[in-house]
């Protein structure tokens, strides 16, 4: 059956970046949203900065919440739905955590009872403020908050898989209390799928919340190993979508490609549009896709210091709101939002044990086998080893053939272009 796919963008304000919450200018926001709506996109994902909104554990600033509601209303006036990320958290290499969780008040983000009370109150408050807005999609708990729970973060808040599971349940429940009936979810960067000691696990990502979210960035070793026009680079987002399905209990659980971008210099600016075109076409060949949300809307101003170089040019639009070639690619895709991909009948076996999930990452045998299959013309899905003989599960997903990595020729040979 055909269905609609959502096309949107992660909203990065053109003026002041996310620090715009400190000097909120609704006219500037409206102009940004106009430039996004003109591309024909249907939603945005927005990022209140947690320390600005909740500077004290028992103070959630009413003015900040009011400004968030104004932004959501302005988006609705332009036909844009809005997903709101709560716990920011981490954005573009910078951490934004309230002072009541750090240094002299150092408390674990995932296990301390007082911190959990504060987080739940904050998420509940944001959700409740937006619950009656028809264009409010729902909450995402935070942006890649798993990066705080393990290395390579320089000062991680360590927690066990069980403690993270309890944290996810409580925070999702808080969102549901604030805005009942909305599709609330959580989202992590790809260490959830690739890093053996990450306490946020694939099973949690694929089973908790209203849908599964994946964030695809080829600077994780994929483009470095294989080049920007290689099968692994151009299919990496599709791979994460399909990899996530191995752990899902629901055969057709929706998957949201919530972040994907074209990072320089691995994808030079003059090749960004071609990379986006290939990435989108390949993801649209994945069944059960909820939507594609590009990172990001507007470039970071060069007036702002200390960002990694790649962050300055990731926008679909320039800092003065002019569309780039890559924006036109997304606009073209959004003009035909229905799709009907065939089931993926060949499934590659993935180990269910999260302590060995690195086999799924760049250079791992599952990763390499998957892209060897793609290079040979297959359209692989994935299945957990513990379900590889489950005929009912396989049939529900349309899988008729199961192969293991050792049955597939090793390491795909991509180009080495930069």
TrEMBL record:
Which terms in the Gene Ontology molecular function aspect does this entry carry?
Answer: hydrolase activity
Determine the domain of life of the protein's source.
Answer: Bacteria
Q: Which organism is it from?
A: Streptomyces hokutonensis
For this UniProt record, give its keywords in alphabetical order, as a comma-separated list.
Answer: Hydrolase
Which InterPro entries would you find in this protein's record?
GH
Q: What is this protein called?
A: Glycosyl hydrolase
């Amino acid at each position: 059956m055909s269905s609609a796919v959502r096309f949107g963008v992660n909203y990065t304000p053109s003026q002041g970046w996310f620090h715009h919450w400190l000097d909120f200018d609704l006219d500037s926001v409206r102009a940004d949203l106009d430039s996004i709506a003109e591309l024909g996109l249907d939603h945005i994902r927005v990022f209140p900065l947690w320390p600005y909104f909740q500077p004290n554990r028992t103070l959630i600033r009413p003015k900040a919440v009011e400004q968030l509601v104004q932004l959501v209303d302005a988006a609705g006036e332009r036909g844009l739905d809005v997903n709101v990320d709560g716990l920011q958290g981490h954005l573009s290499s910078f951490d934004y955590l309230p002072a009541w969780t750090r240094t002299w008040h150092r408390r674990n983000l995932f296990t301390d009872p007082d911190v959990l009370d504060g987080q739940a109150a904050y998420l509940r408050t944001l959700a409740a403020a937006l619950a009656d807005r028809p264009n409010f999609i729902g909450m995402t708990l935070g942006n890649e908050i798993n990066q705080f729970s393990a290395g390579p973060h320089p000062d991680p808040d360590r927690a066990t898989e069980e403690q993270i599971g309890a944290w996810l349940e409580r925070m999702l429940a808080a969102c549901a209390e604030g805005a009942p009936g909305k599709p609330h979810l959580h989202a992590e960067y790809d260490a959830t799928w690739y890093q053996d000691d990450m306490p946020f696990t694939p099973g949690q990502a694929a089973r908790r919340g209203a849908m599964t979210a994946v964030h695809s960035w080829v600077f994780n070793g994929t483009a470095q190993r294989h080049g920007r026009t290689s099968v692994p680079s151009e299919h990496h987002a599709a791979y994460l979508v399909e990899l996530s399905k191995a752990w899902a209990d629901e055969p057709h659980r929706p998957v949201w490609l919530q972040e994907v971008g074209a990072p320089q210099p691995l994808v030079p600016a003059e090749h960004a549009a071609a990379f986006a075109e290939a990435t989108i076409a390949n993801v649209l060949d994945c069944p059960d896709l909820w939507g594609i949300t590009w990172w990001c809307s507007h470039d970071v101003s060069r007036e702002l210091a200390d960002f990694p170089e790649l962050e300055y040019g990731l926008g679909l639009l320039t800092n003065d709101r002019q569309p780039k070639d890559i924006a036109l690619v997304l606009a073209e895709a959004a003009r035909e939002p229905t799709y009907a991909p065939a089931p993926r009948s060949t499934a590659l076996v993935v180990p269910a044990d999260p302590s060995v999930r690195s086999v799924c990452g760049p250079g791992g045998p599952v990763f390499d086998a998957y892209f060897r299959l793609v290079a040979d013309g297959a359209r692989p899905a994935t299945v957990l080893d513990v379900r590889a003989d489950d005929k009912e599960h396989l049939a529900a997903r349309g899988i008729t053939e199961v192969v293991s990595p050792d049955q597939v020729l090793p390491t795909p040979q991509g180009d080495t272009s930069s």
